[in-house]
Specification:
With 285 residues, the protein is of the alpha/beta class. It is 40% helix and 15% strand. It has a six-stranded parallel beta sheet. β5, α7 and β6 form a beta-alpha-beta unit. The protein binds nicotinamide-adenine-dinucleotide.
Amino acid sequence: MLQLLDGKALSLQIKEEIANEVRQLTAQGHRPPHLAAVIVGNDGASQTYVANKEKSSHEVGFTSSVYRMPEHTTENELLEVINFLNSDPEVDGFIVQLPLPKHINEQKIINTISPDKDVDGFTPINIGRMVLSEDAFIPATPMGICTLLKRYGIETSGKHCVVIGRSNIVGTPIANLLSRKGFDCTVTICHSRTTNLPEITRQADILIVAIGKPEFVTADMVKEGAVVIDVGIHRGYRIIGDVKHSEVDRLCSWTTPVPGGVGPLTIVSLLENTMKSYKKNLQIK
Ligand code: NAD
């Protein structure tokens, strides 16, 4: 029988846990955690993401600051803001909302973020630490997926996990995380050059879909009883994912709704990473 991995409900629960911890620490005289965000230009989806991050920060008692910069901002102007945030001892973590305008070199910007404040987990240092199973900030979306699997007690050990998508922010890190000790999946990564995709995805006990194509995954691609995690978000007259839930859900043991699945956990992971940085900065165990 189909069961939902309810990201909305779980995110409310974890936010309450964070808010309680913040209340206790501020009552002891500590400053609140501080998460900053930088956004360049007017991309609608990015504005929504940043507004949601700001709202969630306030909900858990964090200080939140947003640096809104115009589309024509130069790379150097953006680097200045990043260096400022890197050196501000009152900022525990910050994110630079992607995508950036075309005239700015995204990787150069990411490489400038201090790994100690990189709560999105996008810098090469954090990705390297993650791959080596060292202490790291894990990228927010894969971390959210891991939280869903863990908190719902989904058995992962020895399971075949197929990930569709190999992006730096979702597909590649989630494939790595689930293959490592703790999750112990056997992982297959599929991408735009994969041949016989349905044949491979039908072998998945756990299917993670991060492809960016609306309702791409159909019933013929899913094994009966699979756990299906839909990372996709497509905004139209209603929000849909990368999975055609109207035909796939009847096959699943567990699935994530869209909206209300992976999305809310992504923001919560950002808050958790900021909390981790904050405690390190204030030397709180
Ligand atoms: P991306 O465009 O960077 O990567 C898509 C991946 O899909 C690529 O690696 C590509 O090789 C693969 N792909 C494309 N066509 C394919 C095909 N026909 N067959 C197999 N593989 C194919 O996307 P992304 O940044 O990883 O995001 C994926 C989706 O997840 C998007 O809808 C995005 O909006 C959404 N997203 C959601 C969250 C969240 O919080 N829920 C966070 C990030 C991204």
